[in-house]
Write a structure and sequence with these properties.
single chain, alpha/beta, Rossmann fold, 7-stranded mixed sheet, two-stranded antiparallel ribbon, 24% strand, globular, disordered N terminus, methyltransferase, SAM-dependent_MTases_sf
Length: 231
């Protein structure tokens, strides 16, 4: 997930009706190692993937963030691979799961349960395919978890969820309430403008690639954070 607009912003709405999104993803995206995370393979967009054909007639259809590698998810995934005890034997919520990369890594590192929270139906299809390609099982919820009570999990992993002010205003209270209820919270973000740094505590930093850097090979020094009052 991220706030950048996808380059294929204008859909060809007459070209494709996504009755079989999973088949489209398998046939048109490349299954390859994630940048900076060679342990994980993901179905990833490329110039010939034609992702605009997945867009429906819904004017509010989200761009396919799930088909690209965003820094926040990569940051969390790298941190969990370095410190698998964070999730080992624990129940995990992957908030705004996108491609599912964070949840996939959590399962590979021993999480007893991973629930991916994602409202984009195409992303939900991609999560299932990506999880299968990495040999793990992930549950998915399309509910608006931000509108509910703290989830019955041990850890919330939130990558790239502070990409605009409106979402940040919903995410931060949800994470704060979850932390108060005893849930551990980790946030991955390359310090985007809407990240509420004053409310966070830096845990670790990594240099990771972020979508938008193109073929330059440049990366951002991003952070893994927890809430400032989490100790």
């Amino acid at each position: 997930m991220s706030g950048h607009r996808h380059p294929e912003a204008e859909p060809n709405r007459d070209a494709f009706s996504p009755r079989d999104v999973r088949a489209f993803i398998v046939e048109n995206l490349h299954l390859k190692p994630a940048p900076g995370l060679q342990e994980i393979v993901l179905y990833t967009a490329h110039p010939g993937s034609g992702l605009s054909r997945l867009r429906t007639s819904d004017a509010e259809d989200a761009p396919p963030y799930w088909a690209y590698n965003w820094a926040g998810g990569t940051l969390l995934a790298r941190h969990i691979l370095n410190y698998p005890d964070i999730v080992g034997g624990r129940r995990v919520l992957d908030l705004g799961a996108g491609s599912g990369i964070v949840g996939i890594v959590a399962r590979k590192c021993g999480a007893s349960l991973v629930i991916a929270a994602e409202i984009d139906t195409n992303a939900i299809a991609a999560i299932g395919l990506n999880a299968a390609a990495n040999g793990v099982a992930i549950e998915v919820t399309s509910a608006d978890v931000l509108a509910g009570s703290p989830p019955d999990v041990d850890v919330i992993l939130a990558g790239d969820v502070f990409y605009n002010p409106q979402l940040a205003e919903r995410v931060l209270p949800f994470l704060a309430a979850s932390r108060k209820a005893g849930v551990d919270v980790l946030i991955g973000d390359p310090r985007r403008q809407s990240l509420p740094l004053a409310a966070l505590k830096l845990v670790a930093e990594y240099a990771v690639p972020d979508f938008g850097d193109g073929s330059t090979g440049q990366g951002a020094i991003g952070g893994v954070f927890t809430l400032a009052d989490a100790g």
